[in-house]
Amino acid sequence: MKVWKVVGLAGLVGVAATGVVIARGERKRRAYTPEEVRDRLKTRVKEAANA
User: Fold this and answer.
1) Is residue 44 part of a domain?
2) Distance of CA 9 to the CA centre of its chain
3) What's the structural domain count of the chain?
4) Would 14 be classed as within a structural domain?
């Protein structure tokens, strides 16, 4: 029975860690100003056109 408790706890920790990673990425993404997003998109379009 102890093994299943450890497995369950490990799964719970994994889910929590995934949530933290997603939240950090979301905060980074939302930190861009509209001008920065526009500039980044224009740069990516130019790179894609040249590839």
Assistant:
1) yes
2) 23
3) 1
4) no
d(CA 17, CA 37): 28
d(CA 33, CA 19): 24
Structural domain boundaries enclosing 38: 22-50
Which structure tokens are listed for 15? 């889910």
The 10s digit of each residue's pLDDT in 25-39 is 888 878 888 899 999
Cα gap 29→47, rounded to integer Å: 21
Considering the entire predicted model, what is its pTM? 0.49
- Which structure tokens are listed for 7? 């497995």
DSSP per residue, the chain: -HHHHHHHHHHHHHHHHHHHHHHHHHHHHHTS-HHHHHHHHHHHHHHHHH-
